[in-house]
Structure formats: structure tokens, C-alpha cells
Amino acid sequence: MALIITDECINCDVCEPECPNEAISQGEEIYIINPALCTECVGHYDVPQCVEVCPVDCISSDPNMVESKEQLQEKYHALMGKQ
């Protein structure tokens, strides 16, 4: 699954620089995650780095973007230009 930032976000700015895929950006009110770029850090780390650093635990799985670990791995390879 891609991740989503809930409205509990306090705009602390710690998640954005931690994302290896640059999937996190400032939205109109809170940070947002681009599901096309989010691999939950599969291919980079064992756990999503944004979740690890979030001080208010406002990042969770997006129920509208259900993806398996294999699909996330495939997305990682596509984003990195690997086959």
C-alpha cells in the first residue's frame, strides 16, 4: 500500500527529507504523499522512513492504494530504472 498523511499532521517538516523517492511534498494545508512515487521505502529501507520520524504518528496505509510487497518492489524498480 502507498502511505497517506492524515489531517493530524502538524507540518513539522521532518518526513519530506526522509523520503528516498521524493514522494512527500507540502500540500495546501498539510504534507501529502504521491502514491505513484510511494514504495513504503521498499528497495531502500526495511521500514518506511516517514513513519519512523513522524512525531505525531499521522502516517498510515492508504486503504485506497492497496499494493503487495511485490508490487511495491516492482514500482521501486520502475522508479529507479531497473529491470
TrEMBL record:
It comes from Nitrosomonas cryotolerans ATCC 49181. This is 4Fe-4S dicluster domain-containing protein. One of its GO terms (cellular component) is cytoplasm. InterPro entries: 4Fe4S_Fe-S-bd, 4Fe4S_Fe_S_CS, PSI_iron-sulfur_center, YfhL-like. Coiled coil: none annotated. Pfam families: Fer4 (PF00037). Keywords: 4Fe-4S, Electron transport, Iron, Iron-sulfur, Metal-binding, Repeat, Transport. Residues 1-29, 31-64 form the 4Fe-4S ferredoxin-type domain. It comes from the Bacteria. GO terms for molecular function: 4 iron, 4 sulfur cluster binding; metal ion binding. PANTHER family: PHOTOSYSTEM I IRON-SULFUR CENTER, PHOTOSYSTEM I IRON-SULFUR CENTER-RELATED.
